[in-house]
Amino acid sequence: MTRAQTIFPALILAFTASMLALGYFHYHYSWTSFAFPLGAGVVIIALCASEILGTLRHPVADAERLANMPALPLRSILWLFALAPFLWAFGFVVGAALYLLISLRGHAFSWRASIITALLSLLVSWGLVIKVLGVQLPIRPLWMG
Question: What is the pLDDT of residue 63?
């Protein structure tokens, strides 16, 4: 077990908990504004706590699993940073969906799974985030001003 296996999730857990506490106790956000961040934050905190507990319970199994993992290729790391140009060129809604479609196809997922994931991304970002929650994401490409 490496320290990073426990420190990194612990830092994410602490940051999320402190941001939620700040929003609730200091800014006194209304329930309608705070419900979604609270729900997402509780899920993140639960996942981090689960990861920390799993790492502390089974340190030998995790060390063996990490020793047998292949190194992360540079191509996979660059795919993470490719999202920014997609968002700039196509806007948040369409750019994220296109990024998912191309990224999944580039990583040998089926056309069906790639298209369904891209459509779900469109549905969630436009339908849930923009229409239901009222978050004003830029729909037009960012270069259009």
Answer: 62
Q: Tell me: do 63 and 83 sit in the same domain.
A: no
Query: Which pTM does this prediction carry?
Result: 0.57
Determine the pLDDT at residue 66.
65
Pick the last residue of a domain from 42, 68, 94: 68
Q: Give the pLDDT confidence of 99-134 residue by residue, as tens digits.
A: 999 999 988 899 999 999 999 999 988 888 888 878
Q: Find the domain containing 48 and state its range.
A: 3-68
Which two tokens mark 47? 């996942």
Say what the pLDDT of residue 13 is. 95
Contact 130, 137 (CB under 8 A): yes
Spatial separation of the C-alpha atoms in residues 116 and 109, rounded to whole Å: 11
